[in-house]
Amino acid sequence: MKILSASQIKEADRLTLEKQEISSVDLMERAATMVFNEIHRRLQGVQIPIKIFCGIGNNGGDGLVIGRLLIDSGYDVTIYVVNYSDQRSQEFLVNYDRVKNMTKKWPVLLKSEADFPEISYGDFVVDAIFGVGLNRPLVEWVANLVKHINNSKAFVLAVDMPSGLMADAAVEDKESIIRANFTITFQVPKMAFYMPETAPFVGELQVIDIALDREFLQNTPGSAQLISKPEAKALYRPRNKFSHKGTYGHALIIGGSYGKIGSVSLTALAALRAGAGLVSIYAPKCGYDILQTLVPEAMVLTDPHLEILSSIDFDLDPEVIGFGIGVGTKEETVTAFEGLLKQYKIPMVIDADGLNILSKNVEFLKLLPEGSVLTPHPKELERLIGKWKDDFDKLEKIKDFTTKYKIILVLKGAYTFTVTSENIFINTSGNPGMATAGSGDVLTGVITALIGQGYEPLQAAVLGVYLHGKAGDLAAAELSYESTLAGDIAKKTGAAIFDLFETEQTNPKQ
After folding, report:
1. Within this chain, do residues 204 and 241 fall inside the same structural domain, yes or no?
2. Is 318 flagged in the annotation as binding?
3. Does 101 carry a binding-site annotation?
4. Exposure of 344 by Cβ count < 10 A (0-12 exposed, 13-18 middle, 19+ buried)?
5. Is 440 annotated as a binding residue?
């Protein structure tokens, strides 16, 4: 699913009115009716106080339609108009008159803090103050109204956007954003819904299709692409019956140091579970017995040094290299990594201490093979690209970074972002149970395996992130968030692949 900017959504609205030959009031009625239907489906006529806060633009017009339909269905509704300006949209005025004409209980005008109503914990609040068009900070008394709503602890449903949140830009005053329990947004999700700084304000999200112009939606490039099951499935390559282990690539995992051999075993296991035809591990001598025991399907080569990687020398011809897991940052290891970068120009997947070495030796970045994948968490990213002002600035810095070095960057988080110079992909699988030691090592193995099988590095990163998250979902469903371990995620990788086809077949033989 695409994410569109506020200006693109505005253009989609305009073309819809033109091509479908409907008025903006009719489009508003269509969209708001769908929100009403969802509220009514959930409440089923239960009588609780419903307080609707409407702005004086089109988002407020949506709120007026919702209020009118709820009143007409017998709910206990009070509509408040947040009168922050003398300017009103025409659509707002039409629906304001419709509310007045169908009920004696006219909307209550709010002009200052003195007008704020009491809001109780058991109330149902509908936030329709500002929508996707907001592009400036809230005036002080309206910002205080937002804080008043948030402090009430009432259940809050936001229409299209939590008020105070901007679709395509950062908000400095986070206290002036509605903290919604549930957001129903129109047609497409918005970028701010997935940024670490602003995603918590959205709550549970539902995207409703209000039938905007299909041609525009299909042909317009989005600012980002959400990756869920259908998108991941489209990337998957089925296996040929007459293939063999050589068909699916040789992945070389380089990593480990004394006390950190387990990380390499997780990466190798994940690579095997993700379908690598062959997996070899290059590790310090101290890891030999451990790795041969934990991952018997992998071949193990050892460094001359007992405890660290001091030189990287192998007589193999891998399609891809995964580097950095547990290697540490000793001087000998840094020198060995530099030699690896100078000698091999096949794609690499670099994580953990590999990233830390790059951040301390920025000249190494120019040696990265084109199409390599870096998989930092936020602190590792900061060490690579420097500090950022906000999440939107961070994305621009990442795009500049990936453009300069012709690489792909996977920023791990609740929503993992895969970024190139031209594309942003936002993953939707995964859960809090994956916040566990070794989870990132597993991701490195999955992406490495997919590149080795012939996936383009960008496809491997996007599909690998989704499968990793889905494997975590399957593991947590069985074990709970608290009990999910990285090894459980690796073991569920096959189930995650099978899940792509769950509705089409039950036979795992693909």
Report:
1. no
2. no
3. no
4. middle
5. yes
Residues contacting residue 488 through CB under 8 Å, at least 6 positions apart: 475, 478, 479
Query: Do 451 and 349 lie in a common domain?
Result: yes
Q: Flag whether 59 is marked binding.
A: yes
Residue 65 and residue 208 share a domain: yes
DSSP string, 97-114: HHHHHH-SSPPEEE-SGG
User: Could you report the per-residue pLDDT of 375-398, keeping only the tens digit for each?
Assistant: 999 999 999 999 999 999 999 999
Q: What is the pLDDT of residues 321-361, one digit of tens each?
A: 999 999 999 999 999 999 999 999 999 999 999 999 999 99
What CA–CA distance (Å, rounded) separates 357 from 359?
Answer: 5
DSSP SS3 for 210: coil
| 80 assigned to a ligand binding site | no
Shared domain check, 245 and 136: no
Q: Does 296 show up as a binding residue in the annotation?
A: no
347 labeled part of a ligand binding site = no
Same domain assignment for residues 208 and 150:
yes
In a domain, 362, yes or no: yes
Q: According to the annotation, is 249 in a ligand binding site?
A: no
Evaluate if residue 504 carries a pLDDT over 60: no
Name the residue range of residue 75's domain.
2-216
Same domain, 211 and 241: no
Q: Is 131 annotated as a binding residue?
A: yes
**413 marked as part of a ligand binding site:** yes
CATH of the domain at 440: 3.40.1190.20
Q: Is position 133 annotated in a ligand binding site? A: yes
> Binding site annotation covers 468?
no
Examine residue 226 and state whether it is found in any structural domain, yes or no: no
User: In Å, how far are 73, 150, 153 from 181, measured between CA atoms?
Assistant: 23, 10, 10
395 domain-assigned: yes
User: Residue 430, annotated ligand binder?
Assistant: no
- 127 annotated to a ligand binding site: yes
- Whole-number pLDDT of residue 103: 76
Q: What is the pLDDT at residue 211?
A: 96
Q: Are 407 and 373 in contact (CB under 8 A)?
A: yes
pLDDT tens per residue across span 80-100:
999 999 899 999 999 999 999
- What is the count of structural domains for the chain? 2
163 labelled binding-site residue? yes
Q: Does the annotation place 168 within a ligand binding site?
A: no
Q: Tokens 């395509």 sit at which residue?
A: 168
Which pLDDT score, from 0 to 100, does residue 508 have?
37
3-state helix, strand, coil in the chain (%, to 5): 45, 15, 40
Is 135 within any annotated ligand binding site?
yes
Is 76 in the same domain as 174? yes
Q: Please tell me whether 58 is known to bind a ligand.
A: yes
pTM surpassing 0.70? Answer: yes
CATH number for the domain that contains residue 174 = 3.40.50.10260
Does 190 lie in the same domain as 77?
A: yes
Residue 125 falls inside a structural domain: yes
61 is in an annotated binding site: yes
Q: Is 213 among the annotated ligand-binding positions?
A: no
